[in-house]
Amino acid sequence: MQATVDYSLLNRQLEALLDTRDWLTNSAQTCAFIQQQLSDLNWVGFYLQRQPNILGLGPFQGLPACHPIPFSKGVCGAAAREQKTQRVDDVHAVADHIACDAKSNSELVVPIVIDGRVWGVLDLDSPLHGRFSEQDQAGIEALVATFVRQTDLPELTATA
Ligand code: SME
């Protein structure tokens, strides 16, 4: 059982931290902030749709990671394909889970959808089983919304 996290406070802190509109700076700051503030995470980072239906590795905290990830594969691919947050209590129960770090046991992936198109995803991994509650999901989705609101996101590729 995780201690209750004050996501409303974290959101205000992230709003203050993101004091540039630059997507690269803000995405790097956002994943570093989450990694520092939340317990029991072994990887936090962005994957960006820089080619149609393919996620490319973006700023992250943690071990070097898998790249690229097609929309057809893994938990990140499912989040992008379905445009829906994926909250997975046991990644080993997901047949096509992509194991970047053998320590990961649970995962939360929030898609970043702009005008109906997937700009990218934010991926969080934990060594704990069932690390992410519904409250964590809502809290992280709110942090992602703050990132989107306070950032000028670069255009997707023409065909994406
Ligand atoms: N586990 C993810 C791949 C990304 S890494 O966890 C950083 C997946 O199945 O999509």
UniProtKB/TrEMBL annotation:
InterPro entries xrefs: FRMsr_CS, GAF, GAF-like_dom_sf, Phosphatase_reg/MetRdx
Q: Which PROSITE patterns match?
A: UPF0067 (PS01320)
- Please give one Gene Ontology molecular function term for this protein: L-methionine-(R)-S-oxide reductase activity
Q: What parts of the sequence cross the membrane?
A: none
Q: Which SUPFAM superfamilies match?
A: GAF domain-like (SSF55781)
Q: GO cellular component annotations, sorted alphabetically?
A: cytosol
- Which intervals hold domain GAF? 22-158
Family stated for the protein in its record:
Belongs to the free Met sulfoxide reductase family.
- Protein name (database record): GAF domain-containing protein
Source organism:
marine sediment metagenome
